[in-house]
């Protein structure tokens, strides 16, 4: 009865996290792994430079890695998780969908396409039905669903908890971990005793993805939320966990206590990977902190704290584990939502 | 002809930087060092756990440390630099001023007092004459001048360069180095692979000191600037150099090029420690960075970059060396201003 | 049927790890917590600055902290774990033993005393019976057992696995994590982008404790092993996990394969906290690494690798989690050994 | 009268340090820069991702980068510094020498060749005359001289200072900075909160290069020293500065004071880049430390400390700046020696 799943791009940093999460998963059974042509034919142990801090699962280690092509993987796979580089994702994901596969993708390509649902299940599960539009338009048997960028996932749940107050303006400054750039993304000479106030195209992702996630789907098309977001992104010397400073201005008055209460009360979902509570609110003003709090809720919760009123609305901080909630876990959770809603 | 100077609180992190800057200074001659009673009577080498990355100057090493009391230091000292803990500063600085000493202090006590000039020479040298008011009111022969907090000094020069556009609102997020908290201020277990989104009372300093610095002195009293500032402060694992993300909203239209031009054109002063240019503007979007750029202008310049227009005004980043321009060098420069203006 | 246990010095870094390990322990029930007088009377949540990366256990958080005195804790406690500073340990541990308590202590005081068993259960469980000698000599109803220093625990199991080859000389260079010095032991300004080639009295601990651990107990007295050990200790910027480079010269010929085999085959014990295998041997030459491998065996295993023959005997590397296997877990395991052997 | 010099491989990490050192050099005039074909024709500013913490020299920034071929550079160049990757060095350095250029190379290729002098001027300047043998054998008008590996340079001067005691055995454990692996050599995900107990082929370099450096040249051939060296190499999270723990066993008795005295008394040379003293000996047992002491002697001195007697001979620690004394500065100093000895 288990859903048979595969991972496209299984050897990279997010691919490794996917395997760490899928191996013990109660409903998903890992049945296919793909990577670049140079890895095809090797065992996973040979192909992957395993970097996750738990041992490589013994059975996965001996699986044979396939090329990233629809013909290379078994027909009876119900669901594919994709953590391909975005250029590769753009080139090959549509082919898998056309061949009938349902793909839950973490890759950034196509996220802003009108007929591609960009989903955080606890926030906008109803956008999933955009897949009907997608299948109509593209003539696919399969389907393509995306999760947002790691830095977007970190702050959007806290905004969603405040929508009742009428979101108007958001300033967000990020302090992002090096794992967000992939295994070789940031050299040690760049970041030890340093910070980099720029991450290419990251600011645009926070600004546009957040509006799509908080948008309204009327069954036919999606209207983006009109909250104005301005982001400034920084890389700092942390391994995992993106920390964000947020200022939010709202139509209705919003004080610190009301914001904390709204976040704590924001509901999680009855899906295996959705933590309860979704948003963990700290009382201590110096929390959340990346190393201390990135694993709250098994790495799937959002940590928040430091709410205070300012002349420009409410200021607070939030944090999420960027390769779990912000990437691999986000794709897995979308897979669970697809299964729950009969899309497999 | 040299000005004979002393350092109050000479053994701490800022005290050591003061000595590093004063020892080769062409106009100041180091003639007295004080510390806590437990250090009094020791040589400086014995009393200080020297941590600056250049050797302790040989002559200073053998100076005898005195107690931090007016009676303990020579009468012929013209100028005292103070890097005392603020509670100690509040208790003893007035006594030195009453005893006739002119004190250029980095300690946070008294910075916001109406009759205490809070000065960055290139920004508001004209506030120095508030000392006349101070002497009148307090009956001192000496005088007390303050430099701002390190995180305030980092962004205020960039704002000063933009005043012609009419400053309205400023959001600032800081990524601050551990040296800002003093030698034992941040434990390694707190900060390795981590960030802390809270620095006690730091946000208030950015918000209030900036308005005083940018205020108008009419010869009798000081009117604070009415720009609204909201700060969010973070500690990150860097040794030196505070990096800040700034959004500024102005009355007049302000584009990225105009902002860069205004900053580059902002004048420095003809004082020994004032760098030219005062603000170094980078073209590369990923600069300034703490480790790469904190020593620009000998650690006395402000580095800026990343100007971009947003829906909420201009966004940019700035950086300064927090223990040089942000502390010891700021006090030394104020000392040079005092000498230049006949206050010694 | 659970053993009721207490923790002396419960608020420090090792004390927190003890609580993290004892709270879910199947055989031990946490019934008392002590700390310094200033903490006595507070709840544990109030008294401890909790720094472990899992939440403070809810029931422990509300326990009342007692003063560290025999009269302050319940009579029905069967076993006390001590993580007191060594000067405090020296002053108060004997009083608890005299009052009838069995104390499993991580503090360094008394470790080298002739009648105090210094024990790593998998290595020298038979030394436990030195407690008979201790009780005879000291007239105690209670008992005092010690575990070694964290850096000693890291390499001694690998030496024990090689004793059959006849240990002669050992050179060991350590790369130690900051948590080994306690929460405030190493300031961030000391260690970011740095290493410190000196840890006070640490080298002596490796050199002398290892000989006692590998010694022979004949039922009446203990003869230390005569292997000659020379250590050089360094602090590096890692949070947890001590890495050590070892050269060992043996009477019998010892090649890399034989060493790896002997380590892998070294038996663990049938105690709750003893991992199987005790020594995890890596094939990859670049392992073990602190961040990747410190949690092998739940933080209770020793990781080893890099065996190679040199002109001076065998060279290899080993690693252990310094606050789990090297401190809190070591004390807990000694407690399990005491329970198993009827000493409670 | 200045010597016109060029840099082969000018865009890499060591190439940038070469430029930083050569630009202000009183005797060398930088006249040619080469890099890979993809950089040829660009200005140096365009071709190099400048990473040194002082600005790129203005005149160098506008120089045109050439291909790394003898025909591509001016004929009037007297001396070439090479910081090419070793595989490229092996392929192209001989061609330059054949074309008449004298090459002072930091690349590892050919270092152990019988007719290639491997030189640290203060240690074995007399090996330079091996160039006569080289020219005879190879028929070159030019010449090829090498400096050793960065980790070798760090400890060999301290051994050289102790040769009078009769070197027998050396154990050395290294704690090496990430810059030693080049700009992209160590990813941040590998090294933050971590250490890596393996650096490919590094141990062999310390063991063999040290014996060649300390060898005897009789005018015709070189006899390597027969001291036995065993090295264990580690990468740690420091930017610059290799720290090494050394145990040395000698024929004659050697105590800590005599070792310190011999090191302090070891002579430097009358060359521009040779610091005086060559070896800076610290009294404090916790020095040298990478961040504090890597710039002693302008980054060209060796720092040493922590001398203590052990059962296995003397133990001490030493440190050098790996990209200055250990690479770029080493090549420049060899260039000065070549000029001084009439080889240009």
UniProtKB/TrEMBL annotation, chains A, B, C, D:
Protein name: Aspartate-semialdehyde dehydrogenase
Transmembrane segments annotated in the record for this chain: none
Protein family: Belongs to the aspartate-semialdehyde dehydrogenase family.
Catalytic site positions: 150, 242
Domain of life: Archaea
Keywords: NADP, Oxidoreductase
SUPFAM superfamilies, sorted: Glyceraldehyde-3-phosphate dehydrogenase-like, C-terminal domain, NAD(P)-binding Rossmann-fold domains
Protein's GO biological process: methionine biosynthetic process; threonine biosynthetic process
Pfam family, any one: Semialdhyde_dh
Domain Semialdehyde dehydrogenase NAD-binding: 4-131
This enzyme's EC code(s): 1.2.1.11
GO molecular function: aspartate-semialdehyde dehydrogenase activity; NAD binding; NADP binding; protein dimerization activity
